[in-house]
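Hey,
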Amino acid sequence: MFQRLLVALLALASVVCAQRQVDPKFTYSRVICVVPFVGQGTAADPKRPEYAPWPASTDPAGIIGFSFLPSDDGKSAVVEFVALHRAAFQALFDDKSITVFEKGVVGKSTIEATVQKYRKGFNLDTFGVVMP
């Protein structure tokens, strides 16, 4: 009986130890967008990408994080939005005036080729927000 228990525990330990941690850049739901800037540039209304939550949202059902780079012309931004659930991006998906790519659904080369029209040298490997 003791030998069977020991073998079972060793087998379980080998399976648990074999799992790798997920890279934080691939956790949660994420989209890459090209959106215009909004805001007046004041402390009360800072210049920020459209759909970026301001003031910072604490609603777990909404967008919980974002990172952006200005486009080459300075009129728009390349943004990565992060949410716990895909439903938080519904307004982005419904807005046909902006370019939206869902990470994990659209290939890296497609995203980079399209976004490089707005920001030269754009690379997904060096862009994004890491969420805890």
